[in-house]
Amino acid sequence: MSEKIPRGWIKTKVGSVLGIRNGYAFKSKDFKSTGIPLIKQTNLVENSVSLKNCQYLDSSFLVKKSNFTIEKGDILIAMSGSLGKVSVYNYDFPALQNQRTGKLNFYSKYLLRNLFFYYFTYIAYIIEKSGKGCGIQNISAGEIEELSFLLPPLNEQKRIVAKLDAIIPRIDSVKERLEKIPAILKRFRQSVLSAAVTGKLTEKWREEHPEVESAETLIKKVFSQRVNDCLSTTQREKVKEIFDEVETENSEQLPTSWRFVFLKKICESFQYGTSKKSHKEGKIPVLRMGNLKDGKIDWSDLAYTSNESEIKKYLLKKYTVLFNRTNSPELVGKTSIYTGERRAIFAGYLIRINNYDVVNAYYLNYTLNSGYAKDYCYRKKSDGVSQSNINAQKLAHFELPLPPLEEQKEIVRQVDKLFALADKVETNYRQAKERVDKLSQSVMAKAFRGELVPQNPTDEPAEKLLERILEEKTKMEATLKKAKKSSTTKKTKKKGKQ
């Protein structure tokens, strides 16, 4: 089916109305800490150019490489990496254009720059799909210039731009407000966990339930249990040694029925996972550090094993807490609870915490995901080249704020309730974001199909406009060719004299 062209419009190519100028490959040895900004693809952010992490060149390059100067109002497009990203240079001082950063050169004054900013924003997905190359994708200036373009009459260009100028900023404003929601929800969840592990969340509950078994009693019970389970004097001495060690945190900061306690006192072991190689297929999943997400197990991107001895040794029991001992500095120590959704074992970068029943596994999971635990992990981690580590011994010395068991269950109930509310808000946010993200494209699609503003039969047809543009383009090319020939002649004469 043939493409429907709006009345007064004409189908042409991008290269008929403007050119894409590629930048220059400036050498790293010329980079300075101050001077003339060098604009790379990485400086092209949402709508406008950012000078954050920018590199600079000596001002002499404005003369040496004047053909690659960028001025205020120039529209730039990424031709490598983040293909199709469009930004406007909005600074009052000039800059220089790096290789693979394209600049839109307009052949005529009878074109509105803002129209083409919107157009290239609209076709960014087409440019992205057109990229070639292994690894980093690239597109040439010529390939962009070959893209089809429906040229509207000049007066209609003005009406389209005015309409888009009124609509798009409002959509962007909604996007900006929506983008704040994930950070707000993150702070909300952390504030809930902070209230949970300090006793503030259950203040009212404690008033209504004064006769509960205290944390001190729970610790004495688990001590007795562990001593009774010992099979030798050496084992009993080891348990007594663990319980003789005194915590450093001040339990007086906690509610009177709570107490700080080393995790090693209320857990029987901290076991590392399998070091055997996992596979794309197998009998059961091997949970890895990427499967620990937001306190829960993420069952996507799984690895598997069929090794029966490994399955027997590392098979997870329901309500087991898994601790990520090795990861990037900001992610080391993330924790999730395995609730038995399906049979699984765990990999070597994780620690299985086998706790006694004086601590609720869900409460333990929430506490280890709190800011209090994150601060502990940050202080105790050992840093490598790109990863940090918290070993089992350091984890064992984490001081858990231990409430009475019944209060632990109440804390879990209240946290679950508040997190469910946050999850609902997050779902609504994602749905709203998806709709808003599509809205800009929908509006611009209408604009470039000729459906956003009414056509005016008195407008000069775009066919006449294109004729004038091509005339100006021919004159411009002739002038550039003449200037280039003159420059070459001068160089030849100069060389001859030498």
Short précis:
The protein has 498 residues and is of the alpha+beta class. It contains 17 helices and 25 strands.
Write up this protein.
Helix content is 44%, strand content 17%. The protein has 17 helices and 25 strands. Strand 7 and strand 8 form a beta hairpin. Helix 6 packs antiparallel against helix 16 and helix 7 runs antiparallel to helix 16.
Radius of gyration: 33 Å
| Cα shape | elongated
Distance between the termini: 65 Å
Sheet bearing the most strands, described?
5 strands, mixed
Assign a percent range to the helix content.
40-55%
Mean pLDDT: 93
Uncertain segments are none
Number of strands: 25
Structure class: alpha+beta
**Strand portion:** 15-25%
Question: Which keywords apply here?
Answer:
498 residues, alpha+beta, 5-stranded mixed β-sheet, 4-stranded mixed β-sheet, 17 helices, 25 strands, 17% strand
Secondary structure blueprint with pairings:
Blueprint: E1 10-13, H1 14-17, E2 18-21, E3 36-39, E4 47-48, E5 55-57, H2 61-64, E6 69-70, E7 75-78, E8 86-88, E9 95-97, E10 101-106, H3 113-122, H4 124-129, H5 141-145, E11 148-151, H6 154-179, H7 181-198, H8 203-208, H9 215-229, H10 233-244, E12 259-262, H11 263-266, E13 267-272, E14 284-287, E15 292-293, E16 296-297, E17 303-305, H12 308-314, E18 320-324, E19 326-327, E20 335-338, E21 345-346, E22 350-355, H13 361-368, H14 371-380, E23 382-383, E24 388-389, H15 392-396, E25 399-402, H16 405-447, H17 462-497
Parallel strand pairs: 3-9, 4-8, 14-21
Antiparallel strand pairs: 1-11, 2-10, 3-5, 6-9, 7-8, 7-10, 12-25, 13-22, 14-17, 15-16, 18-20, 18-22, 19-24, 23-24
Helix pairs in contact: 6-16, 7-16, 9-10
